[in-house]
TrEMBL record:
Pfam families: TP_methylase. Transmembrane segments: none annotated. Keywords: Methyltransferase, Porphyrin biosynthesis, S-adenosyl-L-methionine, Transferase. Residues 2-205 form the Tetrapyrrole methylase domain. The lineage of its organism: Bacteria, Bacillati, Actinomycetota, Actinomycetes, Mycobacteriales. Its EC number is 2.1.1.107. The keyword Glycoprotein does not apply. GO terms for molecular function: uroporphyrin-III C-methyltransferase activity. InterPro entries: 4pyrrol_Mease, 4pyrrol_Methylase_sf, 4pyrrole_Mease_sub1, 4pyrrole_Mease_sub2, CobA/CysG_C, Siro_Cobalamin_biosynth. GO terms for biological process: methylation; siroheme biosynthetic process. This is uroporphyrinogen-III C-methyltransferase.
């Protein structure tokens, strides 16, 4: 799913800061083995509920290498501005007076459902899709998502980072009026050789995901498109 522009940025870099969701394992395929051997590759992954490289440390490394005159590529998963902290990294570069270019990516919110045969929109079926973070449960006071409004909107709902709270999220949507029989689909490791997906309904999604042992990284889609 890397873009040509992204591949060029990687090829032109001296240092590549990688992420666990980016196509790090395919670097040799993207830019060639010899090109990879020439570069310094630094892993700055933040694993969900696991090893975390602090954002400040990532920012510091980008700035330090750039100040030393190296070309730095920051390789992230999907689109850097979709729940990706990409803008924070741009701000860190700006604050340090370092010029940078943002290369938009193909977000998992759209590519992962597509890889499992689920279009986020379809003519005559739905005219809106909303991408939400399910990182916080609906009852968490820190949550900025209006789940009730989403249930009433009637469009496709794409939840990313929502595996842990799927039961609470589907319950909140149904409590706000979403029909329990609304089709749903969950996809883990989408677009990779390890892709796994399940189809269910809003009412059965949490159970179906548990049965299929769906774990992060996964995206789920709730809406009529998931039944196509
Ligand atoms: C921190 S967010 C980053 C999203 C990224 N910026 C994007 O645009 O795709 C990480 C979440 O994206 C989703 N995700 C990323 N890659 C995925 C994949 N290959 N399969 C399923 N979900 C994925 C998961 O919900 C994961 O928890």
């Amino acid at each position: 799913m890397i873009t040509l522009r992204g591949a060029h940025a990687l090829r032109d870099a001296d240092v590549i800061l990688t992420d666990h969701l980016g196509p790090t394992g395919q670097l040799a395929q993207i830019i060639g083995e010899e090109a990879v051997a020439d570069k310094e590759i630094i892993d700055v992954s933040k694993l969900p509920y696991g090893r975390q490289v602090a954002q400040e440390e990532t920012n510091r490394l980008m700035v330090e290498h750039a100040r030393a005159g190296r070309r730095v590529a920051r390789l992230k998963g999907g689109d850097p501005f979709v729940f990706g902290r990409g803008f924070e990294e741009v701000q860190a570069c700006a604050a340090a007076g370092i010029a940078c270019e943002v290369v938009p990516g193909v977000t998992s919110a759209v590519s992962v459902p597509a890889a499992a045969g689920v279009p986020v929109t379809n003519r005559g079926v739905v005219h809106a899709f909303t991408v939400v973070s399910g990182h916080l449960a609906p009852e968490n006071p820190g949550s900025l998502v209006d789940w009730g409004a989403l249930a009433r909107l009637g469009g496709t709902i794409v939840v990313i980072m929502g595996v842990r709270h799927v039961a609470a999220i589907t319950a909140a949507l149904m409590a706000a009026g979403l029909a329990p029989e609304t089709p749903a689909a969950a996809i883990q490791d989408g677009t990779t050789s390890g892709q796994v997906s399940v189809r269910a309904t809003a009412a059965t999604l949490a159970e179906a995901m548990a049965e299929a042992r769906i774990t992060s990284p996964a995206v789920y889609v709730i809406g009529d498109v998931a039944g196509l």
